[in-house]
Amino acid sequence: MTTIAIRSLSCPFCQHEMTSYEIMSYHVYSSETYSDGFVENNPPMLSNSNILICSDCHKPFWRSDIKMKDPHEEGISNDKLDGLPKVMDIFDLSFAKDEDFSISMCIYYQQLLDSGFANTEEREFELRMKLWHQINNEFRYFPSSWIDALLQNELSLYIKRNKRRPRKHDKEAEIRPLFRSNLKQLLSIFKAESEEDYLLRSEIYRELGDFKRAKKQLKMIKELKNTKTYKKIKRAIVLRRTSVFKIT
Ligand SMILES: [Zn+2]
Fold first, then answer.
1. CA angle (50, 89, 79) in 5-degree steps
2. Residue 151 in this model has a pLDDT that exceeds 70
3. Cα(11) to centroid of ligand 1, in Å?
4. 71 CA distance to ligand 1 centroid (A)?
5. Cα 85 to middle of ligand 1, angstroms
6. Ligand 1 centroid, distance to 175 Cα (angstroms)
7. 126 CA distance to ligand 1 middle (Å)
8. Model pLDDT for residues 174-228, shown as the tens digit of each residue
9. Domain residue ranges of the chain, discontinuous segments joined by +
10. Which of 39, 48, 71, 245 is positioned for an S-S bond with 76, CB 3.0–4.6 A?
11. Phi, psi angles (nearest 5°) of residue 227
12. Residue 23 C-alpha to ligand 1 middle, in angstroms?
Protein backbone atom coordinates (compact mmCIF):
# COMPACT_ATOMS: atom_id res chain seq x y z
CA MET A 1 0.00 0.00 0.00
CA THR A 2 1.20 3.51 -0.79
CA THR A 3 0.84 6.13 1.93
CA ILE A 4 1.50 9.78 1.20
CA ALA A 5 1.60 12.70 3.66
CA ILE A 6 1.19 16.37 2.69
CA ARG A 7 3.85 18.75 3.99
CA SER A 8 4.26 22.52 3.90
CA LEU A 9 7.58 24.28 3.30
CA SER A 10 9.11 27.65 2.42
CA CYS A 11 11.75 28.38 -0.19
CA PRO A 12 15.11 29.05 1.55
CA PHE A 13 15.80 31.91 -0.94
CA CYS A 14 12.53 33.82 -1.36
CA GLN A 15 10.42 32.33 1.49
CA HIS A 16 7.68 31.42 -1.02
CA GLU A 17 5.24 29.01 0.70
CA MET A 18 4.59 25.70 -1.01
CA THR A 19 3.40 22.15 -0.41
CA SER A 20 5.11 18.85 -1.01
CA TYR A 21 4.42 15.26 -0.18
CA GLU A 22 6.34 12.58 1.63
CA ILE A 23 6.11 8.91 0.76
CA MET A 24 5.56 7.04 3.99
CA SER A 25 5.26 3.58 2.43
CA TYR A 26 5.34 2.29 -1.11
CA HIS A 27 4.72 -1.14 -2.57
CA VAL A 28 6.73 -2.35 -5.55
CA TYR A 29 5.21 -5.18 -7.61
CA SER A 30 8.22 -5.82 -9.80
CA SER A 31 11.47 -4.15 -10.76
CA GLU A 32 14.13 -4.27 -13.44
CA THR A 33 17.78 -3.64 -12.66
CA TYR A 34 20.50 -2.46 -15.01
CA SER A 35 24.28 -2.84 -15.02
CA ASP A 36 24.78 0.82 -13.97
CA GLY A 37 22.75 0.27 -10.80
CA PHE A 38 19.62 1.90 -12.18
CA VAL A 39 16.39 0.29 -10.93
CA GLU A 40 13.07 0.69 -12.65
CA ASN A 41 10.07 -0.13 -10.51
CA ASN A 42 6.57 -1.13 -11.42
CA PRO A 43 4.50 0.88 -10.65
CA PRO A 44 6.96 3.70 -11.51
CA MET A 45 8.90 4.87 -8.51
CA LEU A 46 7.35 7.61 -6.46
CA SER A 47 10.26 9.21 -4.77
CA ASN A 48 10.93 11.76 -2.11
CA SER A 49 13.02 13.71 -4.61
CA ASN A 50 16.05 15.10 -2.81
CA ILE A 51 16.41 18.06 -5.15
CA LEU A 52 13.49 20.47 -5.03
CA ILE A 53 12.90 23.64 -7.04
CA CYS A 54 11.03 26.71 -5.85
CA SER A 55 7.91 27.24 -7.98
CA ASP A 56 8.42 31.02 -7.74
CA CYS A 57 12.16 31.83 -8.01
CA HIS A 58 13.06 28.47 -9.68
CA LYS A 59 16.17 28.05 -7.52
CA PRO A 60 17.09 24.47 -6.55
CA PHE A 61 17.65 23.33 -2.96
CA TRP A 62 18.09 20.06 -1.07
CA ARG A 63 15.03 18.61 0.66
CA SER A 64 17.17 17.69 3.68
CA ASP A 65 18.23 21.35 4.12
CA ILE A 66 14.73 22.64 4.78
CA LYS A 67 12.07 21.97 7.38
CA MET A 68 9.14 19.94 6.10
CA LYS A 69 6.23 20.90 8.33
CA ASP A 70 3.00 19.09 9.11
CA PRO A 71 0.40 21.67 7.92
CA HIS A 72 -2.17 20.58 10.50
CA GLU A 73 0.29 21.02 13.36
CA GLU A 74 1.13 24.46 11.94
CA GLY A 75 -2.56 25.43 12.01
CA ILE A 76 -2.81 25.81 8.22
CA SER A 77 -6.42 25.39 7.11
CA ASN A 78 -7.35 22.97 4.33
CA ASP A 79 -8.54 25.92 2.18
CA LYS A 80 -5.18 27.65 2.49
CA LEU A 81 -3.39 24.37 1.83
CA ASP A 82 -5.39 23.81 -1.38
CA GLY A 83 -4.37 27.26 -2.60
CA LEU A 84 -0.63 26.78 -2.04
CA PRO A 85 1.50 25.89 -5.11
CA LYS A 86 3.36 22.60 -5.22
CA VAL A 87 7.13 22.60 -4.96
CA MET A 88 8.70 21.64 -8.29
CA ASP A 89 11.32 19.08 -9.18
CA ILE A 90 13.65 18.90 -12.18
CA PHE A 91 10.97 17.23 -14.33
CA ASP A 92 8.73 20.29 -13.86
CA LEU A 93 11.24 22.72 -15.41
CA SER A 94 10.34 24.16 -18.81
CA PHE A 95 12.95 22.12 -20.71
CA ALA A 96 11.16 18.91 -19.64
CA LYS A 97 8.80 19.49 -22.55
CA ASP A 98 11.60 19.85 -25.13
CA GLU A 99 12.30 17.13 -27.65
CA ASP A 100 15.90 16.93 -26.48
CA PHE A 101 14.82 16.92 -22.88
CA SER A 102 17.40 14.37 -21.77
CA ILE A 103 20.34 16.43 -23.05
CA SER A 104 19.01 19.57 -21.33
CA MET A 105 18.62 17.50 -18.18
CA CYS A 106 22.26 16.30 -18.36
CA ILE A 107 23.43 19.90 -18.88
CA TYR A 108 21.31 21.03 -15.93
CA TYR A 109 22.89 18.35 -13.68
CA GLN A 110 26.36 19.40 -14.87
CA GLN A 111 25.56 23.06 -14.12
CA LEU A 112 24.45 22.09 -10.61
CA LEU A 113 27.76 20.26 -10.13
CA ASP A 114 29.79 23.19 -11.51
CA SER A 115 28.00 25.65 -9.23
CA GLY A 116 28.96 23.66 -6.11
CA PHE A 117 25.33 22.76 -5.39
CA ALA A 118 26.49 19.31 -4.22
CA ASN A 119 28.25 20.58 -1.10
CA THR A 120 29.11 17.18 0.40
CA GLU A 121 30.74 14.10 -1.11
CA GLU A 122 27.52 12.16 -0.56
CA ARG A 123 25.52 14.75 -2.50
CA GLU A 124 28.11 14.87 -5.27
CA PHE A 125 27.89 11.07 -5.53
CA GLU A 126 24.10 11.25 -5.75
CA LEU A 127 24.16 13.95 -8.43
CA ARG A 128 26.83 12.18 -10.49
CA MET A 129 24.89 8.89 -10.33
CA LYS A 130 21.79 10.78 -11.57
CA LEU A 131 23.79 12.30 -14.41
CA TRP A 132 25.22 8.88 -15.37
CA HIS A 133 21.78 7.22 -15.33
CA GLN A 134 20.27 10.10 -17.30
CA ILE A 135 22.88 9.78 -20.06
CA ASN A 136 22.46 6.01 -20.11
CA ASN A 137 18.68 6.40 -20.43
CA GLU A 138 19.39 7.47 -24.00
CA PHE A 139 20.66 3.97 -24.77
CA ARG A 140 19.18 1.84 -21.99
CA TYR A 141 16.06 0.60 -23.75
CA PHE A 142 17.57 -0.21 -27.14
CA PRO A 143 19.33 -3.43 -28.07
CA SER A 144 23.04 -2.86 -28.70
CA SER A 145 23.34 -5.05 -31.82
CA TRP A 146 21.04 -6.57 -34.42
CA ILE A 147 21.66 -10.02 -32.85
CA ASP A 148 20.47 -8.72 -29.47
CA ALA A 149 17.54 -7.06 -31.27
CA LEU A 150 16.61 -10.37 -32.86
CA LEU A 151 16.86 -12.16 -29.53
CA GLN A 152 14.71 -9.52 -27.90
CA ASN A 153 12.23 -9.49 -30.80
CA GLU A 154 12.89 -5.82 -31.43
CA LEU A 155 14.53 -5.93 -34.83
CA SER A 156 12.14 -3.39 -36.42
CA LEU A 157 12.85 -0.94 -33.60
CA TYR A 158 16.58 -1.47 -34.11
CA ILE A 159 16.35 -0.80 -37.87
CA LYS A 160 14.18 2.28 -37.29
CA ARG A 161 16.64 3.61 -34.75
CA ASN A 162 19.62 3.08 -37.02
CA LYS A 163 17.93 4.96 -39.84
CA ARG A 164 18.05 7.99 -37.56
CA ARG A 165 21.74 7.39 -36.99
CA PRO A 166 23.15 10.79 -38.11
CA ARG A 167 21.05 12.56 -35.53
CA LYS A 168 21.86 10.00 -32.88
CA HIS A 169 25.56 10.50 -33.56
CA ASP A 170 25.19 14.24 -32.98
CA LYS A 171 23.54 13.56 -29.68
CA GLU A 172 26.19 11.07 -28.64
CA ALA A 173 28.98 13.45 -29.62
CA GLU A 174 27.40 16.16 -27.51
CA ILE A 175 27.17 14.12 -24.36
CA ARG A 176 30.19 11.84 -24.67
CA PRO A 177 32.72 14.26 -23.06
CA LEU A 178 30.24 14.85 -20.23
CA PHE A 179 29.77 11.10 -19.84
CA ARG A 180 33.51 10.41 -19.55
CA SER A 181 34.38 13.30 -17.25
CA ASN A 182 31.45 12.46 -14.97
CA LEU A 183 32.48 8.80 -14.64
CA LYS A 184 36.10 9.75 -13.94
CA GLN A 185 35.00 12.16 -11.20
CA LEU A 186 32.69 9.50 -9.81
CA LEU A 187 35.62 7.06 -9.53
CA SER A 188 37.69 9.67 -7.72
CA ILE A 189 35.13 10.29 -4.95
CA PHE A 190 33.93 6.74 -4.55
CA LYS A 191 35.98 4.18 -2.63
CA ALA A 192 34.97 0.54 -2.75
CA GLU A 193 34.24 -1.22 0.50
CA SER A 194 31.54 -3.75 -0.34
CA GLU A 195 30.81 -6.19 -3.15
CA GLU A 196 28.22 -3.76 -4.51
CA ASP A 197 30.85 -0.99 -4.63
CA TYR A 198 33.35 -3.16 -6.54
CA LEU A 199 30.65 -4.18 -9.03
CA LEU A 200 29.77 -0.52 -9.57
CA ARG A 201 33.42 0.49 -10.00
CA SER A 202 33.92 -2.37 -12.44
CA GLU A 203 30.88 -1.20 -14.41
CA ILE A 204 32.21 2.37 -14.55
CA TYR A 205 35.57 1.17 -15.93
CA ARG A 206 33.78 -1.11 -18.41
CA GLU A 207 31.59 1.73 -19.71
CA LEU A 208 34.74 3.84 -20.03
CA GLY A 209 36.27 1.04 -22.12
CA ASP A 210 39.02 0.30 -19.56
CA PHE A 211 38.47 -3.46 -19.50
CA LYS A 212 41.70 -4.24 -17.65
CA ARG A 213 40.74 -2.11 -14.64
CA ALA A 214 37.13 -3.36 -14.87
CA LYS A 215 38.40 -6.94 -14.50
CA LYS A 216 40.69 -5.94 -11.62
CA GLN A 217 37.75 -4.53 -9.66
CA LEU A 218 35.91 -7.84 -9.97
CA LYS A 219 38.96 -9.68 -8.62
CA MET A 220 38.86 -7.52 -5.48
CA ILE A 221 35.54 -9.06 -4.38
CA LYS A 222 36.26 -11.35 -1.45
CA GLU A 223 32.87 -12.88 -0.86
CA LEU A 224 30.64 -13.19 -3.91
CA LYS A 225 26.90 -12.98 -3.28
CA ASN A 226 25.48 -11.21 -6.32
CA THR A 227 26.58 -13.91 -8.77
CA LYS A 228 24.15 -12.88 -11.52
CA THR A 229 25.41 -9.29 -11.81
CA TYR A 230 29.04 -10.44 -11.43
CA LYS A 231 28.74 -12.99 -14.26
CA LYS A 232 26.92 -10.60 -16.60
CA ILE A 233 29.41 -7.77 -16.10
CA LYS A 234 32.33 -10.21 -16.50
CA ARG A 235 30.85 -11.51 -19.76
CA ALA A 236 30.38 -7.96 -21.06
CA ILE A 237 34.04 -7.23 -20.22
CA VAL A 238 35.18 -10.36 -22.11
CA LEU A 239 33.07 -9.29 -25.10
CA ARG A 240 34.53 -5.77 -24.79
CA ARG A 241 31.09 -4.17 -24.65
CA THR A 242 30.73 -0.70 -23.21
CA SER A 243 26.98 -0.05 -23.27
CA VAL A 244 24.58 -0.34 -20.35
CA PHE A 245 22.43 -3.50 -20.25
CA LYS A 246 19.64 -5.10 -18.29
CA ILE A 247 20.58 -7.52 -15.47
CA THR A 248 17.15 -8.77 -14.44
ZN1 LIG B 1 12.12 30.80 -4.11
1. 105
2. no
3. 5
4. 19
5. 12
6. 30
7. 23
8. 778 899 999 999 999 988 999 999 999 999 999 999 999 999 999 999 999 999 9
9. 3-92, 97-238
10. 71
11. -60, -40
12. 23
